[in-house]
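To: structure desk
From: M.T.
Subject: fold request, one chain
Message: Could you run this one when you get a chance? Sequence is below, nothing fancy, just the single chain.
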Amino acid sequence: MREPIAALVRQEGWRAEGAAARVHYEGGNDRYAVEFYADSARVLYWSVPTDDDEGGTAAPVPRDDVPDPLRRRVRGDLDEAGIDTGVERREL
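Reply: Done. C-alpha cells follow.
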C-alpha cells in the first residue's frame, strides 16, 4: 500500500482501495463519497444516493458544490496524513 493511502486510512472512516483511499460522509439529506488518488494526487467528490433513492446512481460533484464543512474535514484529514492539503483544490 502506498504511504499516503496508508496514512489516510489511519484517519477516521477512511479505507484503502488499491491506489485510492475513500471515506463516506453523511450530512443532512446528503451523502458523499470522497476519494483520494495517490498516483495523481487528486481528490474527487461523489454524490451517493440515499436509502430513499434506491434507483439513483453516484455522480461526480463539482468542488464548488461540496459543503464547506466536508471540504474542511477532508483537508484536515489530508494534513493529519502528511499530504499537501492543496491537492483537495486541484481540478481534473
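Reply (cont.): The longest strand covers residues 20-27. Let me know if you need anything else for the meeting.
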